Here is the input.
Amino acid sequence: MQLPEYTKVHNRFRLNGFHYNREGLKEVAYSFIKEGDQFERFLGDFLMDWLDASDSIFLETSGTTASPKRMAFKKQALVNSAIATGDFFNVSVGDSALHCLPANFIAGKMMLIRAMILGFSLDLVSPARNPFHKNQKSYDFVAMTPMQAYHSLHHIDQIKTLIVGGAPVSIALQKALLKSGVKGYETYGMTETLSHIAVRTMRDPLGTFQCLPHIKIHQDERGCLVVNAPLLDVVDLVTNDQIEIINTKTFRLIGRVDNVINSGGVKLHPEQIEQKLAAVLSHSFFIGSMPDPTLGEKVILALKDQPESPWEAIAKKIKTIEGLNSYERPKTLVVFSSFVETHSGKVKRDKTLALKPLYSLDL
Here is the structure.
């Protein structure tokens, strides 16, 4: 009787330079749980769940717009996702990879599964801002957040193929990665789709994604993305992401329907405004709204406080940005001591705007 793929560990798989079979990985997992740093304990917990006798595993959603949920997934679906990634990016047995993502989220979990299933030589490092600090090694395949990619720009020549996900890639980061010459991709996905189901190269326009071969998409009555992926056991997964379908395999991401601002009868997507502002703002920020007696809702710019920040100078800079129409241009600048975030680091806009600001300025 042939064993299911999810029970196998590739005989070329290496972790931090050492070969392990299933029993050896269980010992590693136990050691991580008992003696490891926090990121290693997360890895240990996941490995123990992955290597048990069950054909399913529980994963937790990010909780960006709602409370996190625990959901059961078939392990074979995660294996199928790993194989699809290997095929799409042409990475396979013996390739070197760096694991620098938190293992308590789907991206970090999938990086480990890809390595075990495809036979990578995988190095583990703490999910720090610059994973290449004191690391001179080169890698065939690396997955990072945009923040990590930004802080690793001086080390990008150590990477052959880079995928960036978890948050939108800014215009500035896209230009920097294009200039570096790395084979770079932005990914689109979520826990419910077991990591990415669409990607775009850094040469493509922001927000324009190409679906992986096994993915089928359509829109609901709101114009939001609906995903079907039989290999991932995904059937009519309805998202809150409004899209423009370019063809059967390509779409442009517009923004989340639950973030839409109705200002003077004009519907605005904060994500579209943020893309324009990202070219000139280096601060942590997001676009939100506040009630307005004339417009109904007015666009505001929320900023995270930083030492010696010249808020008045930023306000002047906002007024000179080209490409912003009168509705998109923020009407008020609001500064907060911190942003309310999910455990995966995504900003909860409404909860942040409910906080008492440190400072505000009408623009």
Q: What stands out?
A: The longest strand covers residues 234-247. The CA atoms of residues 210 and 250 lie 5 Å apart. DSSP finds nine helices and 21 strands in the chain.
